[in-house]
Amino acid sequence: MSQPSDPDSLGFLISDVARLVRAEIERRIAAAGVAVTPGEGRALANIARCGVVRQNVLAERMGVEAMTLSGYLDRLEGRGLVTRTADPADRRAKLVELTPEAEEVLAEVRSIGAAIREDLTRNMGSERWNELIGMLKLLREDLSAMKGEAPRPGDHT
User: Fold this and answer.
1) By the 8 A CB rule, do 56 and 93 touch?
2) Do 121 and 111 form a contact (C-beta atoms < 8 A)?
3) How many domains are contained in the chain?
C-alpha cells in the first residue's frame, strides 16, 4: 500500500494558494464589473510585467494553452487594449504589447490585487508578508536556475 501524500507539502501548498488567489481575483473582477474577463485581466497584468513579449512565451508564463491566450488577445485587441505585430526576428511569431488605453483597466486590476494583499496581510502583518514574498522569490530563482531559465525582470529582491 502506498503512503498518502502530504496535503501540506510545498507543491500542494503553492498550488492551493495560487488557485485560491486566482479564484479570489476572478471573483472580485467580476463583482467590480471591470471591463475584462478575469483571464483577460491576467493576460494584461502579465503583459505589463513582461513588456513586449512573444505570444507563445506569454502563454507559457501564464500557464495557459496557446489557443486560450489567443482568444483573450483577440478580444483585448478588438477593444484596443493590446496590439500584436510580427516579430522581426521570426515573422511567424507574434509580439504582444499593451496600448495606452490598457492602463485604465490595469489600474482597476491592480487595485483589486492591492485590496487582496491588504486582506491577506491583516493576519500576518506586513513584516511577515515581506519575508514570505522574499522567500518565494528565492524559491522561484532556485527553480528557474534548475530549469536553466534566466530570471524574469523583477525577480530579485
Assistant:
1) yes
2) no
3) 1
What is d(CA 86, CA 55) in angstroms, rounded to the nearest whole number? 10
DSSP string, 6-59: -TTSHHHHHHHHHHHHHHHHHHHHHHHT-SS-HHHHHHHHHHHHH-SEEHHHHH
pLDDT digits (tens, 9 = 90+) for 121-150: 999 999 999 999 999 999 999 998 997 765
C-alpha cell at 52: 513586449
User: Are 95 and 84 spatial neighbours (Cβ–Cβ below 8 Å)?
Assistant: yes
CATH number of the domain at 105, please. Answer: 1.10.10.10
Range of the domain at 116: 21-124
pLDDT at 80: 96
Q: What is the largest CA-CA distance in the chain?
A: 58
CA dist., res. 126 & res. 155, Å (int): 20
Note whether 62 and 69 are within 8 A (CB). yes
Q: What is the pLDDT of residues 68-108, one digit of tens each?
A: 999 999 999 999 999 999 999 998 999 999 999 999 999 99
Residues 6+ positions from 11 with CB-CB distance below 8 Å: none
Angle at 130 (CA atoms; ends 129, 134), nearest 5 degrees: 120
